[in-house]
Amino acid sequence: MNALSPVPETATDITPSGEDYAIVKQVIELITIDYREQPSLDAIAAELGQSPTQLQKVFTRWAGLSPKAFLQAVTLDHAKRLLHQEELPLLETSLEVGLSGPSRLHDLFVTHEAMSPGEWKAKGGGLTMRYGFHPSPFGLALVMVTDRGLAGLAFADDEGGRDAYFHDMARRWPNAHYVQDSDATAPYISRVFDARRWACEEPLRVVLIGSDFQIRVWQSLLKIPFGKAVTYSDVARDIGQPTASRAVGAAIGRNPISFVVPCHRALGKSGALTGYHWGLTRKRAILGWEAGKG
DNA sequence: GACGGATTCCGCA
DNA sequence: TGCGGAATCCGTC
Protein backbone atom coordinates (compact mmCIF):
# COMPACT_ATOMS: atom_id res chain seq x y z
CA MET A 1 0.00 0.00 0.00
CA ASN A 2 2.70 2.44 0.97
CA ALA A 3 5.25 1.46 -1.62
CA LEU A 4 5.64 5.05 -2.68
CA SER A 5 7.00 6.33 0.57
CA PRO A 6 10.31 4.64 1.24
CA VAL A 7 11.29 4.21 4.84
CA PRO A 8 14.79 5.47 5.62
CA GLU A 9 16.97 2.56 6.61
CA THR A 10 19.27 3.69 9.33
CA ALA A 11 20.71 1.72 12.18
CA THR A 12 18.80 3.85 14.63
CA ASP A 13 15.45 3.29 13.04
CA ILE A 14 13.33 1.72 15.74
CA THR A 15 10.48 1.01 13.43
CA PRO A 16 11.80 -1.90 11.46
CA SER A 17 10.38 -2.67 8.10
CA GLY A 18 8.03 -5.57 7.68
CA GLU A 19 10.42 -7.44 5.43
CA ASP A 20 13.08 -7.80 8.08
CA TYR A 21 10.82 -10.10 9.97
CA ALA A 22 10.87 -12.66 7.18
CA ILE A 23 14.61 -13.09 7.78
CA VAL A 24 14.41 -12.89 11.53
CA LYS A 25 11.71 -15.50 11.62
CA GLN A 26 13.92 -17.98 9.82
CA VAL A 27 16.82 -17.27 12.12
CA ILE A 28 14.68 -17.89 15.16
CA GLU A 29 13.41 -21.12 13.72
CA LEU A 30 16.96 -22.26 13.07
CA ILE A 31 18.25 -21.54 16.52
CA THR A 32 15.19 -23.06 18.12
CA ILE A 33 15.92 -26.48 16.71
CA ASP A 34 18.52 -26.70 19.44
CA TYR A 35 19.03 -23.45 21.22
CA ARG A 36 21.75 -24.85 23.43
CA GLU A 37 23.99 -25.05 20.43
CA GLN A 38 23.88 -21.33 19.78
CA PRO A 39 25.07 -21.60 16.17
CA SER A 40 27.48 -19.00 14.91
CA LEU A 41 26.39 -16.11 12.77
CA ASP A 42 28.35 -17.57 9.89
CA ALA A 43 26.58 -20.90 10.19
CA ILE A 44 23.16 -19.26 10.24
CA ALA A 45 23.99 -17.04 7.30
CA ALA A 46 25.22 -20.01 5.30
CA GLU A 47 22.06 -21.92 6.08
CA LEU A 48 19.90 -19.06 4.85
CA GLY A 49 22.07 -18.30 1.83
CA GLN A 50 22.90 -14.81 3.07
CA SER A 51 26.14 -13.04 3.67
CA PRO A 52 26.99 -12.74 7.37
CA THR A 53 27.40 -9.00 7.02
CA GLN A 54 23.99 -8.55 5.52
CA LEU A 55 22.39 -10.80 8.09
CA GLN A 56 24.05 -8.91 10.90
CA LYS A 57 22.76 -5.64 9.51
CA VAL A 58 19.19 -6.80 9.13
CA PHE A 59 19.22 -8.35 12.53
CA THR A 60 20.53 -5.39 14.40
CA ARG A 61 18.14 -3.10 12.61
CA TRP A 62 15.24 -5.29 13.55
CA ALA A 63 16.09 -6.32 17.08
CA GLY A 64 18.29 -3.54 18.37
CA LEU A 65 20.52 -6.40 19.50
CA SER A 66 23.40 -8.24 17.96
CA PRO A 67 22.46 -11.73 16.82
CA LYS A 68 24.49 -13.16 19.64
CA ALA A 69 22.73 -11.11 22.29
CA PHE A 70 19.44 -11.99 20.71
CA LEU A 71 20.21 -15.69 20.88
CA GLN A 72 20.77 -15.35 24.57
CA ALA A 73 17.56 -13.45 25.02
CA VAL A 74 15.44 -16.31 23.78
CA THR A 75 16.91 -19.09 25.87
CA LEU A 76 15.09 -20.83 28.65
CA ASP A 77 17.55 -19.42 31.15
CA HIS A 78 16.71 -15.92 30.17
CA ALA A 79 13.01 -16.59 30.35
CA LYS A 80 13.43 -17.86 33.87
CA ARG A 81 15.23 -14.71 34.80
CA LEU A 82 12.34 -12.64 33.51
CA LEU A 83 10.03 -14.57 35.75
CA HIS A 84 12.00 -14.27 38.93
CA GLN A 85 13.36 -10.79 38.53
CA GLU A 86 10.57 -9.30 40.48
CA GLU A 87 8.46 -11.02 43.05
CA LEU A 88 4.93 -9.87 42.47
CA PRO A 89 4.95 -7.46 39.60
CA LEU A 90 1.22 -7.62 39.15
CA LEU A 91 0.15 -6.36 42.51
CA GLU A 92 1.69 -2.95 42.55
CA THR A 93 1.58 -1.71 39.01
CA SER A 94 -1.34 0.54 38.32
CA LEU A 95 -2.23 1.00 34.73
CA GLU A 96 -3.62 4.47 35.30
CA VAL A 97 -0.38 5.63 36.83
CA GLY A 98 1.22 4.49 33.66
CA LEU A 99 4.51 6.26 33.52
CA SER A 100 5.41 6.14 37.17
CA GLY A 101 8.03 3.42 37.03
CA PRO A 102 11.16 3.67 34.98
CA SER A 103 10.49 0.36 33.27
CA ARG A 104 7.24 1.71 31.98
CA LEU A 105 8.98 4.66 30.40
CA HIS A 106 9.61 2.51 27.38
CA ASP A 107 6.29 0.81 27.48
CA LEU A 108 3.23 1.50 25.45
CA PHE A 109 0.93 3.89 27.28
CA VAL A 110 -2.56 2.42 27.20
CA THR A 111 -5.99 3.08 28.62
CA HIS A 112 -8.64 0.49 28.28
CA GLU A 113 -12.32 0.06 28.72
CA ALA A 114 -14.35 -3.10 28.66
CA MET A 115 -17.55 -3.82 26.86
CA SER A 116 -20.48 -4.43 29.14
CA PRO A 117 -21.72 -8.01 29.54
CA GLY A 118 -24.77 -7.06 27.50
CA GLU A 119 -22.65 -5.84 24.64
CA TRP A 120 -20.61 -9.01 24.83
CA LYS A 121 -23.73 -11.13 24.57
CA ALA A 122 -24.69 -9.29 21.42
CA LYS A 123 -21.54 -10.76 19.86
CA GLY A 124 -20.63 -7.49 18.29
CA GLY A 125 -24.15 -6.62 17.15
CA GLY A 126 -24.52 -2.90 16.51
CA LEU A 127 -20.76 -2.48 16.35
CA THR A 128 -18.89 -1.18 13.34
CA MET A 129 -15.47 -2.71 13.03
CA ARG A 130 -13.00 -1.07 10.67
CA TYR A 131 -10.10 -3.20 9.63
CA GLY A 132 -6.94 -3.15 7.56
CA PHE A 133 -3.73 -5.05 6.94
CA HIS A 134 -0.36 -3.38 7.51
CA PRO A 135 3.28 -4.39 7.68
CA SER A 136 4.63 -4.68 11.20
CA PRO A 137 7.88 -5.78 12.85
CA PHE A 138 6.27 -9.19 13.33
CA GLY A 139 4.87 -9.77 9.91
CA LEU A 140 1.66 -8.63 8.33
CA ALA A 141 -0.70 -7.28 10.96
CA LEU A 142 -4.47 -7.17 10.90
CA VAL A 143 -5.88 -4.23 12.83
CA MET A 144 -9.49 -3.81 13.92
CA VAL A 145 -10.88 -0.65 15.47
CA THR A 146 -14.20 0.59 16.76
CA ASP A 147 -15.07 4.15 17.59
CA ARG A 148 -14.14 3.31 21.18
CA GLY A 149 -10.62 2.31 20.29
CA LEU A 150 -8.45 -0.56 19.19
CA ALA A 151 -10.32 -3.85 19.45
CA GLY A 152 -8.22 -6.36 17.55
CA LEU A 153 -4.64 -6.95 16.47
CA ALA A 154 -3.58 -10.17 14.79
CA PHE A 155 -0.59 -11.38 12.82
CA ALA A 156 -0.56 -13.18 9.50
CA ASP A 157 2.21 -15.40 8.31
CA ASP A 158 1.65 -15.00 4.62
CA GLU A 159 0.05 -12.49 2.29
CA GLY A 160 -2.10 -15.18 0.73
CA GLY A 161 -3.80 -16.15 3.95
CA ARG A 162 -5.45 -12.82 4.62
CA ASP A 163 -8.94 -14.22 4.50
CA ALA A 164 -8.19 -16.91 7.02
CA TYR A 165 -6.75 -14.41 9.46
CA PHE A 166 -9.63 -12.05 8.96
CA HIS A 167 -12.12 -14.81 9.71
CA ASP A 168 -10.15 -15.92 12.72
CA MET A 169 -10.74 -12.48 14.15
CA ALA A 170 -14.19 -11.76 12.76
CA ARG A 171 -15.77 -14.88 14.20
CA ARG A 172 -15.09 -13.58 17.68
CA TRP A 173 -17.72 -10.91 17.09
CA PRO A 174 -19.85 -12.47 14.40
CA ASN A 175 -22.61 -9.87 14.47
CA ALA A 176 -20.39 -6.86 13.99
CA HIS A 177 -20.45 -4.90 10.79
CA TYR A 178 -17.06 -5.13 9.10
CA VAL A 179 -15.71 -2.39 6.87
CA GLN A 180 -12.33 -2.48 5.22
CA ASP A 181 -10.75 0.87 5.95
CA SER A 182 -6.96 0.95 6.00
CA ASP A 183 -6.91 4.69 6.40
CA ALA A 184 -8.65 4.33 9.74
CA THR A 185 -6.37 1.58 10.97
CA ALA A 186 -3.01 2.85 9.72
CA PRO A 187 -2.49 5.36 12.55
CA TYR A 188 -2.79 2.57 15.09
CA ILE A 189 0.04 0.61 13.53
CA SER A 190 2.58 3.35 13.91
CA ARG A 191 1.32 4.23 17.36
CA VAL A 192 1.72 0.64 18.52
CA PHE A 193 4.96 -0.39 16.89
CA ASP A 194 6.96 2.81 16.86
CA ALA A 195 8.67 2.79 20.23
CA ARG A 196 9.32 6.51 19.99
CA ARG A 197 5.60 7.11 20.29
CA TRP A 198 4.87 4.72 23.14
CA ALA A 199 5.13 7.22 25.92
CA CYS A 200 3.41 10.13 24.25
CA GLU A 201 0.98 12.20 26.27
CA GLU A 202 -2.10 10.70 24.79
CA PRO A 203 -2.67 7.08 25.75
CA LEU A 204 -3.66 4.48 23.23
CA ARG A 205 -7.34 3.74 23.60
CA VAL A 206 -8.17 0.08 23.73
CA VAL A 207 -11.51 -1.65 24.10
CA LEU A 208 -11.68 -5.17 25.48
CA ILE A 209 -14.53 -7.22 24.09
CA GLY A 210 -14.88 -10.57 25.81
CA SER A 211 -16.51 -12.51 28.61
CA ASP A 212 -16.21 -11.27 32.15
CA PHE A 213 -13.53 -13.80 32.95
CA GLN A 214 -11.54 -13.08 29.83
CA ILE A 215 -11.56 -9.37 30.50
CA ARG A 216 -10.25 -9.86 34.01
CA VAL A 217 -7.44 -11.97 32.62
CA TRP A 218 -6.57 -9.49 29.89
CA GLN A 219 -6.61 -6.59 32.33
CA SER A 220 -4.18 -8.50 34.46
CA LEU A 221 -1.86 -8.95 31.49
CA LEU A 222 -1.93 -5.22 30.81
CA LYS A 223 -0.26 -4.70 34.17
CA ILE A 224 2.85 -6.69 33.34
CA PRO A 225 5.68 -4.21 32.94
CA PHE A 226 7.73 -4.12 29.79
CA GLY A 227 10.52 -6.66 29.75
CA LYS A 228 9.00 -8.75 32.54
CA ALA A 229 7.09 -11.99 32.41
CA VAL A 230 4.64 -13.90 34.59
CA THR A 231 3.38 -17.45 34.78
CA TYR A 232 -0.16 -18.55 34.14
CA SER A 233 -0.59 -19.26 37.81
CA ASP A 234 0.64 -15.74 38.63
CA VAL A 235 -2.19 -14.36 36.56
CA ALA A 236 -4.65 -16.74 38.18
CA ARG A 237 -3.57 -15.51 41.60
CA ASP A 238 -3.80 -11.90 40.46
CA ILE A 239 -7.44 -12.21 39.45
CA GLY A 240 -8.25 -13.91 42.73
CA GLN A 241 -8.67 -17.46 41.44
CA PRO A 242 -5.39 -19.10 42.28
CA THR A 243 -6.39 -22.54 41.05
CA ALA A 244 -7.64 -21.41 37.67
CA SER A 245 -4.30 -21.34 35.90
CA ARG A 246 -5.49 -23.62 33.19
CA ALA A 247 -8.60 -21.62 32.50
CA VAL A 248 -6.38 -18.56 32.49
CA GLY A 249 -4.30 -20.15 29.78
CA ALA A 250 -7.38 -20.67 27.69
CA ALA A 251 -8.50 -17.06 28.17
CA ILE A 252 -5.07 -15.70 27.34
CA GLY A 253 -5.17 -17.74 24.18
CA ARG A 254 -8.22 -15.80 23.10
CA ASN A 255 -6.71 -12.39 23.59
CA PRO A 256 -7.87 -10.40 20.58
CA ILE A 257 -5.33 -7.58 20.82
CA SER A 258 -2.01 -9.34 20.64
CA PHE A 259 1.13 -7.42 21.47
CA VAL A 260 -0.81 -4.53 23.02
CA VAL A 261 -2.32 -6.86 25.58
CA PRO A 262 0.99 -8.57 26.19
CA CYS A 263 0.00 -12.18 26.22
CA HIS A 264 3.49 -13.05 25.00
CA ARG A 265 4.71 -12.21 28.51
CA ALA A 266 2.87 -15.17 29.99
CA LEU A 267 5.09 -18.22 30.31
CA GLY A 268 4.87 -21.65 31.86
CA LYS A 269 6.18 -22.04 35.36
CA SER A 270 9.40 -23.57 34.03
CA GLY A 271 9.99 -20.54 31.84
CA ALA A 272 9.00 -22.47 28.74
CA LEU A 273 6.99 -20.74 26.06
CA THR A 274 4.03 -23.06 26.19
CA GLY A 275 1.92 -21.62 23.43
CA TYR A 276 0.93 -18.71 21.26
CA HIS A 277 -2.05 -18.29 19.05
CA TRP A 278 0.08 -16.80 16.30
CA GLY A 279 2.90 -19.30 16.63
CA LEU A 280 5.69 -19.88 19.12
CA THR A 281 8.24 -18.40 16.75
CA ARG A 282 6.42 -15.12 16.88
CA LYS A 283 6.25 -15.25 20.66
CA ARG A 284 10.02 -15.70 20.76
CA ALA A 285 10.46 -12.90 18.29
CA ILE A 286 8.43 -10.47 20.35
CA LEU A 287 10.19 -11.37 23.59
CA GLY A 288 13.60 -11.02 21.95
CA TRP A 289 12.60 -7.75 20.35
CA GLU A 290 11.48 -6.42 23.72
CA ALA A 291 14.80 -7.49 25.19
CA GLY A 292 16.46 -5.24 22.66
CA LYS A 293 14.35 -2.26 23.69
CA GLY A 294 14.70 -2.67 27.42
C1' DG B 1 -23.45 -31.92 32.06
C1' DA B 2 -19.59 -32.78 29.23
C1' DC B 3 -15.40 -31.21 27.15
C1' DG B 4 -10.91 -30.01 26.65
C1' DG B 5 -7.05 -26.59 27.64
C1' DA B 6 -1.27 -21.37 25.86
C1' DT B 7 -1.02 -25.89 33.46
C1' DT B 8 1.25 -28.24 36.88
C1' DC B 9 3.29 -31.78 39.36
C1' DC B 10 5.54 -36.11 39.86
C1' DG B 11 8.29 -39.90 38.62
C1' DC B 12 11.67 -41.87 35.84
C1' DA B 13 15.89 -41.96 32.64
C1' DT C 1 17.68 -31.60 32.96
C1' DG C 2 14.10 -33.46 29.93
C1' DC C 3 10.06 -35.99 28.86
C1' DG C 4 5.61 -38.22 29.38
C1' DG C 5 1.52 -39.17 31.81
C1' DA C 6 -2.08 -38.18 35.31
C1' DA C 7 -4.42 -35.19 38.26
C1' DT C 8 -7.32 -31.37 38.54
C1' DC C 9 -9.78 -27.06 37.93
C1' DC C 10 -12.50 -24.07 35.42
C1' DG C 11 -14.86 -21.50 31.64
C1' DT C 12 -17.62 -22.46 27.74
C1' DC C 13 -21.03 -24.46 24.68
From TrEMBL:
<keyword id="KW-0808">Transferase</keyword>
<dbReference type="Pfam" id="PF01035">
    <property type="entry name" value="DNA_binding_1"/>
</dbReference>
<comment type="similarity">
    <text>Belongs to the MGMT family.</text>
</comment>
<keyword id="KW-0489">Methyltransferase</keyword>
<protein>
    <recommendedName>
        <fullName>methylated-DNA--[protein]-cysteine S-methyltransferase</fullName>
        <ecNumber>2.1.1.63</ecNumber>
    </recommendedName>
</protein>
<dbReference type="InterPro" id="IPR009057">
    <property type="entry name" value="Homeodomain-like_sf"/>
</dbReference>
<keyword id="KW-0805">Transcription regulation</keyword>
<dbReference type="Pfam" id="PF12833">
    <property type="entry name" value="HTH_18"/>
</dbReference>
<dbReference type="InterPro" id="IPR036217">
    <property type="entry name" value="MethylDNA_cys_MeTrfase_DNAb"/>
</dbReference>
<dbReference type="InterPro" id="IPR036631">
    <property type="entry name" value="MGMT_N_sf"/>
</dbReference>
<dbReference type="GO" id="GO:0003908">
    <property type="term" value="F:methylated-DNA-[protein]-cysteine S-methyltransferase activity"/>
</dbReference>
<keyword id="KW-0804">Transcription</keyword>
<keyword id="KW-0234">DNA repair</keyword>
<dbReference type="InterPro" id="IPR014048">
    <property type="entry name" value="MethylDNA_cys_MeTrfase_DNA-bd"/>
</dbReference>
<dbReference type="InterPro" id="IPR036388">
    <property type="entry name" value="WH-like_DNA-bd_sf"/>
</dbReference>
<dbReference type="GO" id="GO:0006281">
    <property type="term" value="P:DNA repair"/>
</dbReference>
<dbReference type="GO" id="GO:0003700">
    <property type="term" value="F:DNA-binding transcription factor activity"/>
</dbReference>
<feature type="domain" description="HTH araC/xylS-type">
    <location>
        <begin position="25"/>
        <end position="123"/>
    </location>
</feature>
<dbReference type="InterPro" id="IPR018060">
    <property type="entry name" value="HTH_AraC"/>
</dbReference>
<dbReference type="GO" id="GO:0032259">
    <property type="term" value="P:methylation"/>
</dbReference>
<keyword id="KW-0227">DNA damage</keyword>
<dbReference type="GO" id="GO:0043565">
    <property type="term" value="F:sequence-specific DNA binding"/>
</dbReference>
